[in-house]
Every structure is written in C-alpha cells, then in structure tokens.
Amino acid sequence: xxxxxxxxxxxxxxxxxxxxxxxxxxxxxxxxxxxxxxxxxxxxxxxxxxxxxxxxxxxxxxxxxxxxxxxxxxxxxxxxxxxxxxxxxxxxxxxxxxxxxxxxxxxxxxxxxxxxxxxxxxxxxxxxxxxxxxxxxxxxxxxxxxxxxxxxxxxxxxxxxxxxxxxxxxxxxxxxxxxxxxxxxxxxxxxxxxxxxxxxxxxxxxxxxxxxxxxxxxxxxxxxxxxxxxxxxxxxxxxxxxxxxxxxxxxxxxxxxxxxxxxxxxxxxxxxxxxxxxxxxxxxxxxxxxxxxxxxxxxxxxxxxxxxxxxxxxxxxxxxxxxxxxxxxxx
Length: 331
Fold this sequence. Notes:
- By secondary structure, the protein is of the alpha/beta class.
- The chain has a domain at about 220-330: Magnesium chelatase subunit I, C-Terminal domain (Helicase, Ruva Protein, domain 3, Orthogonal Bundle), CATH 1.10.8.80.
- The chain is about 45% helix and about 15% strand.
- β6 and β7 (about 145-150) form a beta hairpin.
C-alpha cells in the first residue's frame, strides 16, 4: 500500500468515526448539529471551547455526553463568586499516618481530568478564573512549587450566559484568547423544539456508551496536525487576522470604525487548526477556503475588542469578522 493510499484509508476511518460520534451525541443533544460539529472539531484540533447560550439549552448535557462517547474522565466545576483557586487545582491537606506521623498530602482538584466543564465561568472572580490559565495554555499546573503535567487529551469547555450580566466577572482578553472556538448555542427552531420536548419527557433513554478510546483519539489529534495547508491558505489566514486590526491598511471600514483591538496570532492558529480538522472530517487532505468561511466567526468572534462606538452600536463581532474575511479573500 502506497503512502497516499495509507493516508486516504486513515482519512476514511476518521470520517466514519467522526460521523458516528456526531450521530451518537445528537441522539442526546437534539437539534443542534452545528454546535456538536464545532465542539468535536475543537477536540480534534486539541483546543478548548467556550459555549455561550441562555440557560436550559442543554450545554451541560452536551459536554457530559461528549466525555461519555470519547471514554474520557469528566469533571464539572460550578463557578460561583465564592469559588477559590484551590477548589479548582487542589490543596494540601494535613494527614496522619498509622504511626502517628503527620505530613501534608496533595489532594488533586477537578482540573485533573480529561474534559473539564467550567460551568458559568464568568460567575467566579478573576483570581479563580486565572487558575485555569496555565492548564489551558501549557496543559500543566504548578502547585506549591511543583509542576504537575495533565493527562492527554485535556480540554476545558466553559459555558456562560450572555443575558444575565449582574454579579458576573467578564473574562479578560488574555483568557478569552485561549479558547480555540467560541460556539454560540442558539434556541432551537420550532420543529427541533417539538422533537426535544417529545423525546425528553417520555421514557428515560439509555446513556450512550464509549465509542472511541483514548489512544485512538490521540491518533486523530496527530492526524489533524499532519494535514497540509498550502501557502495560499496560510496567507489567507494571516490576511484575515491582519484585516481585523483597525490600524492595518487592509482593514475594512467597519473594523476601522468599531474595533479597538483585532485578533492575535493565536487567532490565526485557531483558524488554521480547526480548518485542518474540518478538512479531514469532510474527507479531504487539504484546507480550502470553505473551511475558513465555515469557522472564521467561531475562531475570531471572541478575539475582537470593540471600541466605545462599537459597544454602543448594534454591530456584532460576527459581522466584522465576515467583513474582514471578504477583504482577505480579495487581496
């Protein structure tokens, strides 16, 4: 078998696995195909996701189901104003042995899992929010001068409610930038809502079982990194990032008028990695413009900081990202 045939076989296998995972999750999390797809792409790209949506849309159910089908260790942290960093990372506890000797023993916190759900992350204080920064960026935590490497794969999925802002602490830009994608969870349309109500108020359904093992998932992550992106596609991603900066000569009028700071290079990395994952699950071994068109909003919407006029207007960062994309495609 040639190298090309081997690559095609691996892609075909990944495509089948991905569709099976999508189907399994959608039997529990109903009527939100795009959300499920983007969350799975985030995992394949080795990143973290921020789910934003009103209460009651099933965000916690989605994340729990995701961990189940991937056979990953799952932990949920309910973020509240009185949550402390030690509640996330862990703490030293004084213990006494059978011989009467006393010593401090480190009790690991919920961050030591494969999938960590940070529920309502903007309800905790910035000090507690920052406890996730090192884990998200370096996949390790430092406790009492000791560095503990987290098990792979590791993913933080945070949720926040965009409606209720009283008593919350908006995530700082540095932490928002660590999320590969910001996924909007919208209210389902009428036909999907009917299905949800019908299927969730009747007989209790059996939970979904594991479909992919840890080593197989890590192989999928490695395969995504091997996907080539042509110089044209890398250049397009770079032009898009630059077009989100109001000081750049290529920036469209909307960006110049409403944006204070544009996307960082990490935004370009997020766009490229998620585009590589999407290309694979579409059965392709190369990135295309359509991948950027599908993922640009989710990859960059949380990385644009609006100025005062932008905040006061009805403009959204999604609209500005699409303006920048059109400019980048024509350059």
